């Protein structure tokens, strides 16, 4: 059930060494791009990083919790055409969230590492990435999605009441 899938997805920061089948990931990326997109602009592309030296450099990004990236089988970096739409940041989030759920359905675990707006040694993190990654011209890296088979215990999600998060226009 889709609700169970949503409950079972967790941010995973420890992965097994097991390789990930890229054809499977490619298929999931296609479906991740089928979400809503402002004026159907579809400004998001992907950079796949699966070579050890680059993963080790990603791990040195120094943003919130990145050391484990050296040991993941594969990372997807979302890239945005920032000149074609004003909504590229939201669109990257839509695509990432879709991908995380698609991956979970396939038995794969993921996390979400924010790049956009972060810095490495007082410079935008994107500048650091460009020193070792082949980022196509005109595209801005937004976030990293590590992908693999998780190797950590996760707590079951508790049910919770959302009454205080819902507001009504009319008294009831
Ligand atoms: C916009 C956004 C940015 C995030 N950035 C990071 C990040 O930089 N590093 C990280 O380890 N987790 C990051 N996360 C993941 C959250 O920490 C995680 O979703 C949260 O702890 C809840 O855990 P859960 O995903 O298992 O429900 C980010 C999540 C979102 C939505």
From TrEMBL:
It comes from the Bacteria. Pfam families: Nitroreductase. InterPro entries: Nitroreductase, Nitroreductase-like. The keyword Transcription regulation does not apply. Keywords: Oxidoreductase. Residues 6-60 form the Nitroreductase domain. Belongs to the nitroreductase family. This is Nitroreductase family protein. It comes from Peptoniphilus equinus.
């Amino acid at each position: 059930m889709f609700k169970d899938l949503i409950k079972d997805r967790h941010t995973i920061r420890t992965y097994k060494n097991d390789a990930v089948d890229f054809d499977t990931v490619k298929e999931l990326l296609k479906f991740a791009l089928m979400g809503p997109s402002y004026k159907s602009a579809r400004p998001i592309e992907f950079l796949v990083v699966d070579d050890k030296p680059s993963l080790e450099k990603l791990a040195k990004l120094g943003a919130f919790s990145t050391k484990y990236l050296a040991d993941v089988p594969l990372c997807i970096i979302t890239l945005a055409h920032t000149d074609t739409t004003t909504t590229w940041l939201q669109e990257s989030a839509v695509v990432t969230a879709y991908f995380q759920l698609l991956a979970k359905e396939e038995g794969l675990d993921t996390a979400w590492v924010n790049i956009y707006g972060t810095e490495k040694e007082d410079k935008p993190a994107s500048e650091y990435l460009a020193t070792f990654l082949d980022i196509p011209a005109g595209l801005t890296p937004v976030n990293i999605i590590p992908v693999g088979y998780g190797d950590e215990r996760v707590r079951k999600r508790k049910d919770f009441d959302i009454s205080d998060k819902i507001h009504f226009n009319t008294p009831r």
